[in-house]
Amino acid sequence: MEENKHYTGIKKSLDKPDEGSKIHKPGSKKYELLLFDLDDTLLDFEANEKVSLEKLFEDNGISFTREVFDIYDAVNKELWAGYEKGTISLNEVLNTRFSRTLLELGMTVDGTLWEAQYRALLGRGYQLIDGAFELCKDLSGSFRLFVITNGVTETQLSRLKMTNLYPFFEDIFISQEIGYQKPAGEFFDYVKEHMKDFKAESALVIGDSLSSDIKGGNLAGIDTCWINRKNITNTSDIQSTYTITKLAELYGILGIGTF
């Protein structure tokens, strides 16, 4: 596969899969560019995370209890929130989350070493969200599909390739490569500039995070689809163009029917 020299993204020659059973309803196509978030949108990051964390802690002789997970989860979410706001770097998130977690448990560890171990475990595992493969296969024949993700390039690419979703996407935009993260305007500016024939009115951002995917899409003037899989109440001022609870509901939004 051919990779883009400027590494946008990881632009490739797209091997179109066989068309599925889903077809367009004539005259119903509004969107052409579908910008998918990755973690907890197409890939079940939450499930993979727990398995990888349990293995990491056990390999280091520490029982991975619910208390330990809750401490890690709070620290990790705080750091990622700072990253989304642009107040801390991605490296700071990655290299301090374990040292901070263990410090709260009365232990001192090398956070960078722990992160490397965790990253290796995370990159070897994946689980797809229900219906993700079928959806991407069905849509790829009629739409242009892209990934927009905050994360580590090596890990995200590894997981995409293991799931066999990789060939469905025309380009893959990863925050570590771009130097900015969702919801920053600079992230979406970069995507627009490096996406051939980009038109905001024909694009749709699809993701599970109000604070990064939906907010970022809104700020960029792009319609958004929030995947609210857990049916949580949105008490924020961030509103999406569409809200769905499962990926299959995208077919209706996109004007896709069946034979």
The CATH homologous superfamily of the largest domain: HAD superfamily/HAD-like
Fill in the CATH topology of the largest domain: Rossmann fold
CATH architecture of the largest domain: 3-Layer(aba) Sandwich
What characterizes the major β-sheet?
Answer: 6 strands, parallel
| Assembly annotation | single chain
The number of helical elements comes to 10
Mean pLDDT: 89
Strand order of the largest sheet: 4-3-2-5-6-7
Head-to-tail CA distance between termini: 33 Å
Number of strands: 8
Percentage of residues in DSSP E strands? 5-15%
Q: Write down the secondary-structure element order.
A: EEHHHHHEHEHHEHEEHE
Describe the 3D structure:
- Helix 9 (210-219) links the parallel strand 5 and strand 6.
- This protein has helices spanning 45-59, 66-85, 90-104, 111-123, 132-140, 153-163, 175-178, 185-194, 210-219, 250-253; strands at 22-24, 33-36, 144-149, 171-174, 203-207, 223-227, 242-244, 256-258.
- The longest helix is centred in the first third of the chain and has 20 residues, at 66-85.
- Helix 1 (45-59) packs across helix 4 (111-123) and helix 2 (66-85) runs antiparallel to helix 3.
- By secondary structure, the chain is of the alpha/beta class.
- It is globular and about 55 Å long.
- The protein contains ten helices and eight strands.
- Helix content is 43%, strand content 13%.
- It folds into two domains: 22-43 and 127-258, HAD superfamily/HAD-like (Rossmann fold, 3-Layer(aba) Sandwich), CATH 3.40.50.1000; 46-123, Putative phosphatase, domain 2 (DNA polymerase, domain 1, Orthogonal Bundle).
- The strands form two sheets. A six-stranded parallel beta sheet has the order 4-3-2-5-6-7, with helices on both faces. A two-stranded antiparallel ribbon has the order 1-8.
